Amino acid sequence: MKRPMQFLSLPNAAPAEADVLILPVPHEQTATYKPGTAQGPAAILAASEQLEFFEEDMAWCPLRQMKLAVLPAVEALADEPEEAFHRRLFERAEQLPSDALLIALGGEHSITPEMLFARMPEGGTVVQLDAHADLRPSYHGSIYNHACPMYRIRARGYPLIQIGIRSLHADEAAQIANDDGITVWFDRALQRPGGWQPLLDQLALLSGPVWLSIDMDGFDPALITGVGTPQPGGLSWHQGLDVLQTLTENPAVDLRNIDIVELAPEPSRVSEMMAAKLLQKCISYWGKSQGFDQRAAQGSQIGVNDE
Ligand SMILES: [Mn+2]
């Protein structure tokens, strides 16, 4: 039997009423090294069954006071050209309510641009956790390759803040050096004494719409081996949470869109558990920043027997 797509095993709210929308996009077309990202969304949601309803950092049960819906997955049809799939993804993202928090689950990183073009207001900034700059204009003959999403986004004028970068082509390094709209926080410098706080200071000064794009390979592969293209070094779990918390607690930032991409499940299940817990933190930190903890309990999703 096909496992129902649910978060924390909870029944899904009606999408039009949801405060949080989870969009599975199990798209894997251009992976260049380790396959498996197509199984990412289902594995993350299955792992979420093991999470507690209580989220310990913010000390509340987010889904007692927020409504969440896992949406039907957007998947490529058999023999569908890449361009047609990406157009459908754009249209799907465009139809979703704009005031809910959208969290898309990949799939490979190539899914980010169309969703972003559909939902990100002008003047918005992209904050990207990633081992790779993803600034190639095309790769293996395709602009939709997972090495290219940030090139496409930057070409539309959105400024980029890239965090944890530790693998890039010389041409990407040249683009970064010549483009004031790209700020890169290289991993090696971030991990030196005093290297981390200036990044948080920059994020605390951001304003306007922000899209948070989390490539799971931005984290240390010692923590999460299940990624398509692992690279030594990388962010710790707590550094990832620092970024999330700084953005959600910045009242000048309007964070409505997050993607979590490039998870390729592995038998240990540690990798998908980390992604599931990160998803829970996104929901909790965002919900707390929006004041949902002050609202009356919904009572609709967590039943009395679910404790
Ligand atoms: Mn990436």
Structural overview:
With 307 residues, the chain is α/β, with parallel strands linked by helices. It is 31% helix and 16% strand. An 8-stranded parallel sheet has the order 2-1-3-8-7-4-5-6, with helices on both faces. Helix 3 (82-95) runs parallel beside helix 4 (112-119), helix 4 runs parallel beside helix 5 and helix 9 (237-248) runs parallel beside helix 10 (270-289). The longest helix has 20 residues, at 270-289. Bound molecules: manganese (II) ion (MN). Manganese (II) ion (MN) is lined by residues 109, 130, 132, 134, 215.
Set down the secondary structure blueprint:
Blueprint lengths: L19 E6 L14 H9 L13 H4 L2 E3 L11 H14 L5 E6 L5 H8 L5 E5 L19 H7 L4 E6 L4 H9 L3 E5 H4 L6 H9 L2 E8 L21 H12 L4 E9 L8 H20 L18
Parallel strand pairs: 1-2, 1-3, 3-8, 4-5, 4-7, 5-6, 7-8
